[in-house]
Fold these 4 entries.
Entry 1:
Amino acid sequence: MADYEVPKLKGEGYVEIPTIKPDAMAGKGPFIAKPDFQKALHFPSDFQAAENGKFELVPDWKERALTKLDDLRHRYRSLQLYLDICVKCGACTDKCHYYIGTHDPKNMPVARQDLLRKVYRRYFTFAGKHFPKLVGAVDLTEEVVDDWYNYYHQCSQCRRCSVYCPYGIDTAEVSMAAREILDHIGRGSKYNNEIISKVFKVGNNLGLPQPALADTLEGLEEDVEADTGIKVRFPLDEEGAEVLLVTPSADFFAEPHVDGLMGYAKVFHEAGISWTLSSYASEGANFGMFIGSYENMRRIALRIREAAIKLKVKRIVFGECGHAWRVAYSFLNTLAGPFDFLDPKYPVPQHILEVTWGLIQDGKLVIDKSQNDDKVLTFHDSCNVARGSRMGDKPGGQFEYPRNVIKAVCNHFVDMPADTIHDATYCCGGGGGLLTDDLMELRIKGAQPRMEALKYVTEQQGVTHMAAICAICKSQFTKVIPYYGFKMEQIVSVHQLVSKALVLQRQVSVQACPDEDDDDNDDA
Amino acid sequence: MTFVSILYGLLFWAATLILVVGVGRRIYFYMQIPVPLKIPTTPAPITQGGVVWRMFREVVFFQSLFRASKYTWLFAFLFHMALWLVLLRHTRYFMEIGAFLSFIQPFGKYASFAMVLGLTGLLARRILVDRVRYISAPSDFLMLALLMGIGLSGMLMTFVAHTDIVMVKGFFRGLITFDFSPLPASPILLLHLLLVAVLMLVFPISKLMHAPGVFLSPTRNQVDNPREKRHISKWALELEQQQKTYLDEVKHG
């Protein structure tokens, strides 16, 4: 573990609001994307590496940045309105986990918005044009661009601030717009844009090609068979399956993600639902959202539509992934709909928890809760699921479904303090395109509020494990949690718990293939 | 007619015009900007009626602010609700007093204390809380000062140095009916009216647009039904219909 200054936990379940410490997180921001990656995403790539190892901005960057800002404010009402109507009441100032963890005032949501707002005011409003000092408007300079790049990559777009804003101002909307502007002047983030270009090339964020994926899935089939004696299938590119499962690619190999994937497979197996993964759309997490690019987000989403058509499935189900679920639930129909070629009996798309909870309610799954008796669980509401989506047909279902499933498969469950769960949940500290090692200090500090809540229930109620339903939360927590004195095994997938407690009754998969060498499915 | 009366008459005509036209144009501007994605802050209502109820709780009770900060909520709520009462009471300068207006007169009168108290609280917060001080521009202080100036000068006339309100009513009725009559020559009244006119003038170009703006905020006014009903904006539909990936490939016209 590298050395970082780790916030001290009090163990009282709440965080104290720090006094501001200007420039505490001043810096260069994450690694910058090379022109090649910018080009793959259709962003300007007419910039070069500078001598100091950094990158230059594109020529005419100032005009191009302002043109983009003008374009965006005429295409997104949220942006225009939110730049205009903030009254600086301060309601959001103590709500961001990054502010709490870093004490840097530019990590207060309103101050983060102001980085863009003050430039917007200078060039596009009467007051800012004529009385810049009065309204805090500033010229667009390279220093401002550096601040944008640094601080708009200290926002995980978790929307917690938007819950508390009296006008619903969502800093995520502003930070997405800022990132899109930055992408147009040679300041894309390497982490996000490299990943998106991998999706375009290979189909998933990890750049895992079809043969490697097939191999991995075969390995998982063997693991489950060795464990249970039953051949639970993990089908890939199987035409005619009922369900297309789209899941974050981290589910294919990362811990504890992969245990969740085994859980989905067992649930489908047991319910007799035929399903398949697609190598062409082998990624649930849509990073196009992080960079605020509707076009790239849509380009990624359309792969799912194409895969669904090609594989002739009847339903689309998403695995455990927070941002994936927001894009899936809230945006997929917009980006890649209409889905009139799917079975109208099911919502498009469905969350795996909606499938599992439905089966549990219908008594279709045999559960042995005692299998999880070695654990006392709590549940971390993922930010984008909590505040940007829903499960089931009632508002707030996104809080009930995961808890219902956990309680159905575990005997011991407690919730963390009320102001850290449901729509008041804190981001894990690694969401929104920040899950990269070059932002490690930020990630550790941003996790503080959640760690504080976890420590409280650990000490007060004996919690041993925290379940999550997001690939980023799981990766971030397993990496960051040791800094706070916990063990990475304490983070579990919800379907990992399901997997443990599910007693398989069905001996032969509905998709059992008689011929074992049948792995020459055509590649997309 | 005094020179001052003519000047103030013109000022209020201009201020009213700019307020109404300016705010109207701004609202129209916001309304015609597309909302390409479904972004309600969830849990969100799943029906239009539910959205109306959510918005009602937001604009009448300041629900989100209440969750955020009890002090800010208290001061903001005091100020806004008192302002409504005071404004209602002021309609007596434009129209005949009916039963309702007579009933609320005393409430409106004493609401001015609550209004100034609320403003004082908000100002204190802006100065004393380091976070709020950090995000405040000079205009944020000036806006509070302007509102406090209006409140205090009004209270002076109500409780200390009375002005001839029958004449005031005559003046404003005159502006509406073109049957002009002069303003009383009271410095406090002139100050009060000047500050009110300034407030009206800056309304459309300032953060005061939060008042109409909140109704248009997508995170608060959208129905949570993306799976049931396809939501698509005009520019996104163009992209789709022309089967393009990027907007700069779309042909217009």
Entry 2:
Amino acid sequence: MRSSVSITLNHCSRTFAGGNTALQPLDLHVNAGETLVLLGPSGCGKTTTLRIISGLESPDNGGQVLFGERDVTALPIEKRDVGMVFQNYALFPNMSVADNIAYGLKIQRLPRAEIAHRLDEVMRMVDLKGFGERRIDALSGGQKQRVALARAIAVLPKVLLFDEPLAALDAKLRDRLRIEIGQLLRELGTTAVYVTHDQDEAMALGDRIAVMQAGRIAQLGTPQEIYHQPANAFVADFIGAVNCLEVIGMQADGGLIVHGGELVATHLQGVSTVYCRPEDIQVVPLSQADIKGKVVQSIFLGQSQRLLVDTGGASPLQIEAPCRQRWPNGTHIGLNLPSSVLFHPEKTNTTDTTKELANG
Amino acid sequence: MKSRLRFTLQLGFTLVVCLFMIVPVAMSVIAGLTENYFVGLQSGLTLRWVNEVWQLYADTIWLSIKLALACLLVTIVIGVPAAYGLLRSRRRWANAIEELLLLPVAVPGLATALALLLAYGSYREFRGSWLFILIGHVLFTLPFMVRAVLSVMQTAKLPQLEEAAASLGAGFRQRFFGVVIPNCMSGILAGALMVVTLSIGEFNITWMLHTPLTKTLPVGLADSYASMRLEIGSAYTLIFLVMVVPLLVAIQWAGKLTQQHH
């Protein structure tokens, strides 16, 4: 496979006609061979960023796009040597599966034998062997996206770009294809940029994730860093569920008083709120509890259950609990929130456990 | 009981309307095939009048076919890129142009022809050539081609397909001929059938623009009604129907094809 190339965006902004700013001036570097996921809610600028990298859109004046050392800002997409996978597949309905996959190879005017060989290879890679003569409208959604994937990798692009490729598929298929795409990206070693609004997808696929908000990158880091050391409340909330506990007072020994009890967190002195993930809270006997509360709802999720516990604060705490034990509504339960799982975005220098996770 | 009555009434009404429209056509066809229309069918059936029409008016038929095909060629060459341009342009004047394209359909053919005569009538060579009539036909039929192609283009998600093709290295020409054209074929087909049918049957503009040497089928038809036996006019109509009815059926079929696609 072709050696991969890094991507650099220098000061790329995008303002649409009418003055809407889709993207604030952005600097971004994607290492060669790395998979970077652009994650965020709709309208956050992630797709615009991808389209600027692809060449489908140009940055405002002053912006610069580099592939490796080469300035490609002025090149249209067809000259940039990228492979792109779209949310709605964008397969050519007038061509068979094989013709779709071979389209880019025919444009490159490769010898027929070479095309046949490559076609064979990529169809095996995406598990589509024997589908070559099928019509596009005779395929399921998952098969269509595999064809689109095969079509994009067949040309051996320097850069692979994904624009929410799994958003149109149902949950089960999405999980399977996500795993397959991950394997494929590792196998190919091609630099990839992957846009999604799905945090599970982002964490599973990204070597690094850029969480975007309102046309800016809110945080850029490994999945572990993003999850355990979110840079702000938006990121903490967007990546997985998070509990936000209001600090209503402080003990003389430094303990933080919150609704329902008291927490020990020496690394979080002076904060007004404390965050923690649902799965980091343990249910313990009332006598050993940091916080006490009353179960208001339990949501069965199969592999676990989500308890909503009212501790007297503005909103109930979410707790991930084992699925076999039962806590009827109204049960008083004790919760344990060890110091190591408590965090605050502005105090990102958290505990050692988190650091180990981030490096591993 | 009530619904049955309603059904019977509706059926009766439909049949009456059908008869009202079909009977004159049938009578005309029969007139073209009878030996002597005033005597009636007992005078015998004959192809003599059809034959005679062919002798007298074959050149008008050929000219009509030539005009229709030339008109088709021109409307495809101009109309498909025009539709594509309208599709891609998000500017306000794109809508205005789309409306403007309909103008020749709304303006009486005679007025269009008069305008053409005023503008180009003084170029004698051109005035006497069939190309002069072609201009009139293209003006009249172009909107039908553009509309048919544009409507298919709008539903075919062309911008996305083109982005995909571009990402695979295809330049503009490769995209246009390899992706755009094949994916709006059904629209081009529908437009083409419409253009050919309209061009073959066009009378108003052609009547104003024709010279004794550039008579088309409908103009010849008017001529034969005015100056020939009724049987000859009717036989002429028969030939016209034989040419046009298959086209009309094909238009229906193409319409269904386009709907299935989307």
Entry 3:
Amino acid sequence: MKIKNSFLRGLKSGIPIGLGYLSVSFTFGIMAISLGFAWWQAVLISMTTVTSAGQLSGITIMVNPGQYIEMLISQLTINIRYSFMAVSLSQKADGKFKGIFRWLLGFFITDEIFAVAVNEENVTRSFFSGLAVIPYLGWTLGTLAGALLGNILPDSVMSALCIAIYGMFVAIIAPKATKEKPLLAVVAVALALSCMFYYLPLLKDISSGISISVCAVAAAIIGALIFPKKEEA
Amino acid sequence: MDNIQFLIYLLIMAGSTYLIRAVPFAAVKKKINNTFIRSFLYYIPYTVLTAMTFPAALYATNSMISAAIGLAVAIGIAIWKKDLTIVAVAACVTVFVSEYVIGLL
């Protein structure tokens, strides 16, 4: 009963992520088709990779023949943030969430799934599995829909859907940052760095996947040095 | 593009992305006691999300104004009521309405 409840709670927590993914992967589907991919290729990429920035950069490399090393390097730099998240999540995983379950469920560590999971006191296998279901379906179906239907949704609806994922991010950051002053300061540093990488000459030429990792790591290091978290009892 | 080449690319992309997630997750079994690393790991999710949201979110919709209003509403509702779905839906509706209003002006 406890396991079922925790799975269902995870399932419910995944709904906003799934909705957000629907719109993002829809755009990915359209882009893949416009670059010359078949619909099943776009869907296969989404089902096996499940990462927005990595996939976008991946398909632009794929259209050129034989750039395997470039592909590897771009994926590693864009996705290195998942390693930090995985280690962070490993600290919250409960006693039974180990071994094969980590190898299986580790596949689903995305920015958003991680962000929701890490808000838990303890992350159980059942909660995490439930949490992964709807985002994964949303990511897959959104890609399929985008690839097959293209621009069938009115522009105004597409535009509104595009803010969903960011609304979700804000909902994760804002409540905690307004309660904890150090976190607010660290978030402000990340925001300032991110804007620098977006607008300043030279810095703005760096791909978004890399600059997000750099900004996030730099701000978190500054935070860890200036506001170390006291050991939790 | 032929299917063989597609599959090689897919293998590199999906394989590296999987390993980068699963290996650290499976490998770190103990509690980390180092305060610096613990603090870093505490802050990293929030800094990643912040860097992904700002300023990119301002350019995600048809107009910077609608995006800014949508984000502001999202922040307000997030602080008041923490539910992720409500915040996400409210942000979408706000963007939709404000673009409609901008269109009328």
Entry 4:
Amino acid sequence: MLLTITYSGHPGTDLGYLLHKSPSRIHTVELAFGRAHVFYPEATANRCTAALAMEIDPIGLVRNRRGPSGEGRSLEQYVNDRPYTASSFLSVAIARTFNTAMSGKSKERQALADSPLPLEAHIAVVPCRGGEGLLRKLFEPLGYELSAAQLPLDEKFPEWGASRYFAVTLKARVRLKDLLTHLYVLLPVLDDDKHYWVGDDEVEKLLRHGEDWLQGHPERELIARRYLRHQKHLVNDALEQLLGEEEPAADELAEARTREEEQIERTISLADQRIGAVVAALRGVGAKRVLDLGCGEGRLLRELLKDRQFAEIVGMDVSHRSLEIAARKLRMDDLPTMQKDRISLIHGSLTYRDKRLAGYDAATVVEVIEHQDPPRLAAFERVLFEFARPQTVVTTTPNVEYNVKFETLAAGSMRHRDHRFEWTRSEFQAWAASICARFGYAARFLPIGPEDAALGSPTQMAIFTRA
Amino acid sequence: MKLPIPELAVIVLIGPSGSGKSTFARKQFRTTEILSSDFCRGLVSDDENSQAATNDAFDVLHFIASKRLAAGKLVVIDATNVQVEARKPIIALARQYHCLPVAIVFDMPERLCQDRNRERSDRNFGPHIVRQHSQQLRRSLRGLEREGFRKVHILRSPEEVDAAEIVREPLWNNLKHEHGPFDIIGDVHGCFDELAELLIRLGYSAETGANGYVVSPPAGRKAIFLGDLVDRGPKISETLRLAMRMVKAGTALCVPGNHDVKLMRKLRGRDVQITHGLANSLEQLEKESPEFREEVSQFMDDLVSHYVLDDGRLVVAHAGMKEEMQGRGSGKVRDFALYGETTGETDEFGLPVRYNWAAEYRGKAMVVYGHTPVPQPDWLNRTINIDTGCVFGGSLTALRYPEKELISVAAHAAYSRPVKPLKPDAADAPALSSQQVYDDLLEIEDVIGKRIVTTRLHHNVTVREENALAALEVMSRFAANPKWLIYLPPTMSPTETSLHAEFLEHPAEAFAYFRREGIPSVVCEEKHMGSRAVVIVCKNEDTARTRFGVLEEGIGICYTRTGRQFFNDPKTEKEFLKHVANTVKTAGIWETFQTDWICLDAELMPWSAKAQELLRQQYASVGAAARASLAGAAWSSEKLPSGTDGAKALAERFRRRLEAANLYVDSYRRYCWPVNSVSDLKLAPFHLLATEGQVHVNRDHVWHMETLARICKASDGLLLATPYKKVDITDTSITDAATTWWQELTDNGGEGMVVKPLEFVARGRRGLVQPAVKCRGREYLRIIYGPEYLLSGNLERLRSRAVSTKRSLALREFALGVEALERFVRREPLRRVHECVFGVLALESEPVDPRL
């Protein structure tokens, strides 16, 4: 990994005093994950460049790892980009090698350290989840002139497209301390990964390094969220502390929150409406013993548990991990006995016949069928409608016609990466009709979510009743 | 005095405290057979005499008893059992498990019991208790048989107790010692001519002797009649005469059918409705002598509901037999054997809807039955109904056991008209067999939880519950139609780490491994770098239907090592399979192997075809980052003034790393090329796994390579023959040559080679030997261990790796994969095949070093 800092003031070699590293030799620091070298490829009166080059031990990263396994468990593999990209490793190296400079102190050149200087930083490989737009959003508000060149994945295979890496140059008149601090905080934010466990002291670190600039940064929420690795409670801690320090920013922040919520709200309320509609349908038919097939993390189950009409609730999912999360979210271990006796979670699959599913009043299959390969639907249909045979089946699935209304959704793509298909209303209804004909059910349909005159509602629901 | 008891029974000891029950039980039965109420009292309360613990103690006792009875084990209940309320649940339990309850009563003088109790320090209850017991016993004595006891033995003195000797008798239905071979014949219904014809076809001969004719079976064989000899047909008396003679002569066995029993009841003067062809029997028997009629009714009365034969491998009964009833005796068992079970509903012809017990059958024994006419005998879960409705104009069918060969004789006429048409219209003819229809859905019970799969190659393979959890998710969310999944490939271990300074893997270790196992010859095959693929192709869609039970999914499939369809685009898959099928046809494989389908284990290239996402996300990304970053560092460090201390070394280090990054990029690039159509793909098959009737694991790898090379030769470019060498590993000049070959392969960018024992299934000093060991090239390993793995100091640290877990997994997965194929080829139910395939997937979720 390589970071260079170029000072174009006069005399350039003052950079050595500012960084507390003499230009005449190589300074090497041993770190847990390798070595960091500071040296000066260029040190003239007009221009001076300090390079921070890291030799990360790629074998040691995997074999001696004590921290988290990294985004996508990358640190469990020898083939990973960590030794070569600007990440939290570089931040640690910056803090270790430029400790004094980062605190804004200089024995010989304090005045220089306190003043904005013509500085330029170049980082060879910046991994950026969010593209050039995010790079600009993070650095430009801080006064940098930014140029970024996206690296191709492999020039021999242009069809593979560009990589997620950028060669980045930042230019500004800025205090050295600020430049280093900005890099320290923002590089891991761009990377959105950390090589060490994020704990409570991380909040304190963020506040300390961001005290001069973070409050005023329009993307502070994203910065906090990513810096703290999406650990919600820590993010809230940080934001509260930020708010406490400077009241005027509160309005701005609230506004930012609303904006973000608006963005998410549409989906949140859709999910809520979906659950509401399903619960209403179950109440309507007076179901007492209910199966939630594909219960996931148990959102619907939590709702059902609130209503004593549902005397027996069974959640089933094919993902054991989801069931564990559901059990945690439902606080299964702490529920009072009366409640606990009403609910159970079972691991199972909708493509295998399952005696445990027989004899229920109703089954819900909420946003599940579209996760099945179409040829395997036949098995699911028999498992549910021929063998489990509940009195009522409530099923929901996306209405693909509505997709054009989602601005963030690329044309022709599906709402979820794992969706194997998304149906139009007529496709869904034709499917339901064939179920009714084969298994002796009657179906009625209900739109869920804001209904468009031409496109219908975002979610479609069918309620099957056994004849 | 001998006390006969059935071998499977609930023995209830009845007698007052101190009457000698426990002593008797200890003398006559195995300790594990005796369930003592006192002992159970002790288990739940620490006090064998605690009366307060009685209810709990009996709960425990009944629980253990039911477990034993379910497993077919005799139970002796050692409690006073003098009250009818105490005996009632025991009798119910015996009934539930279709076992006979037997009472052994200890009707001892009261004085004796009192004396014995007094001598025992732990029995400090008063004499009134024993008196009470004795009175209760007396009251019970006469009613015991009415309560349901099939046998009651009463011992009236200590002398009788001492003289008594328990004799275990096999149940009448137990003919496990008869091993056949058998010719099992379906419902005859008086179709004597067809029966005679069938017997001749089966090789039986008839000779006229002093008392009429004598039928002789071919050497060693025996006929079995599945009942319903009578009613409806034209020659009932002749049929009966023949069957009775054969049974008497010991050349045939016969189980009763519902018609036979009804006729017998009529002959014995009972009031039965003259329906369903009974009139024919009565009319024809009317012409016979009363002695013959008496003989017939006695013959039928003596028939045993069903037989368990050949060490429990074969069960015959008229209407079938559920697993839990096999080899047991009770009214329910007899009813099931005669009538089967009905669901209580009636169908559109007004006939009772039969409960399809065979669909749920999971037993190990083959069950052969009749009763309900079917157009074609059809296997379902190791059961087969061979009543092909001869009397209705169908045919009379025999199943030869153990050959599983069906032989039929067409009816000479339709002698009777069935209520329900025997043959459905041609248009309604089922596209799939009963088994295939049934196999459309697998049962979750057959895959989840801890499972133990018995394999031919490697004993029992255990699949742990947590691994099954993961496999269920993968199988449900991603896998193709399970009917196609007749095999999943095992994982493959690399060589042990090389001792050679320059290498992590080297052929020397592979050769040494097999030599150590006592294997003289191996086959070295070039290892292609693509994605593992299993390819099944059928001659046509019809074969896909008849052999695999798959409808409208084309002529085959290409799937990955996790059972997922290889191609996302159905059009590409179709074209690909057509290509393979044409090649197989041109190579004459359909004729050579007398097969309509073929299953290949292969590598499909390029790597980038399937691993596109992985390449972009990981391999190419790392390459791009490494080159940019290291180029920058190398360039910067080279600009350092030459006099700077350590500058040269630093620059050199960065330059080396950059070089390594470039080599790494070269490595993965070799396995990538754009795929725009099927003609850009290469399929390199290395195992011809199976064809109809055969799993080719009895052929050595040279055979596989040669046969596959012949197929590849017929290909116009898609199929690629794999270069290989047969290597005698006891000759160093030959192993040296093989090593050189490997060196050349890998120098030219090859991944490496796979070393296999010559035999497909090889056994060494410690049992099954690794089916294959991979030996990867130096450059290729950059893709595995990172660009810089060869730089100083790195290789040393990478040397510590352990292949034993991987190898143990490889053996278990290999055994499961072969087992799956063998079960499929034997046409076993899908769940039996799926269980193995599911097991491979489950084992693959076991955490092992992913670099191996």
